[in-house]
Design brief:
By secondary structure, the protein is mainly alpha-helical. It has two domains: about 55 residues, Arc Repressor Mutant, subunit A (Orthogonal Bundle); about 150 residues, Tetracycline Repressor, domain 2 (Orthogonal Bundle). The protein is globular and about 65 Å long. It has ten helices and no strands. One of its GO terms (molecular function) is transcription cis-regulatory region binding. This is TetR/AcrR family transcriptional regulator. Keywords: DNA-binding, Transcription, Transcription regulation. It holds the Pfam family TetR_N.
């Protein structure tokens, strides 16, 4: 194998190890408690290599979260544009997949809020906006509104779904610090919420 090709392969392998380790440590400890040395130890590589590839914990966190954004929005867009699914099935799948992703990436809601208030349009860049706001899901809602079966603007329904899903994760640190939610109770509540959200949304449609 040529030296250049071998180096590129090693670089890709090292980056993948660092990213995998970062995902693990950020999920386990949270962003603020995580140190670069924790990620290096998890990846079983030299601390200087993490700094070489990603420069800082913040940049590495942004990189990992960007991958989460891609995965989440691509999945959600796929559900919202699946013409084989009923409106109720779409809501069920979005709630289920969104909550599953947030349980695996507990720092994502805070990252998402920070991105929005920093002035970044990353969350809805390119085709993402059309894939969601011009989706089959929105066309179904517009049809219901025209038929008089939906008395609210369709955007309210999407905002309600997002609020129902995201708000508990933003409140989680406070709930856990105050011992309102203990141990594994939060995960149990979120699994219940996967089933409750579609019921609540259905109640908003005649």
């Amino acid at each position: 194998m040529p030296v250049k090709e071998k180096k590129e392969k090693m670089d890709a392998s090292t980056e993948d190890r660092i990213k995998a380790a970062a995902r693990t440590v950020f999920t386990r400890k949270g962003y603020h408690a995580t140190k670069i040395r924790d990620i290096a130890a998890e990846a079983d590589i030299n601390l200087s290599l993490v700094n070489y590839y990603f420069r800082s914990k913040e940049k590495l966190f942004q990189f990992v979260m960007a991958e989460v954004i891609d995965k989440l929005l691509n999945t959600v867009a796929g559900v919202l544009n699946n013409e084989q699914l009923s409106l109720q099935q779409q809501v069920e799948q979005v709630a289920d997949q969104y909550i599953t992703m947030l349980l695996a990436n507990p720092d994502f809601p805070l990252f998402m809020v920070n991105e929005i208030f920093s002035g970044s349009d990353e969350l809805l860049k390119g085709e993402r906006k059309n894939a969601i706001f011009h989706s089959h899901f929105f066309k179904q809602l517009a049809a219901l509104q025209k038929q008089g079966k939906l008395s609210i603007q369709p955007l309210h329904l999407l905002m309600n779904i997002i609020g129902f899903v995201v708000m508990p994760f933003l409140a989680r640190p406070l709930l856990e610090r105050q011992k309102i939610v203990k141990g594994g109770e939060f995960k149990i509540l979120m699994e219940e919420r996967k089933k409750l959200i579609p019921i609540w949304i259905k109640g908003m449609i005649k």
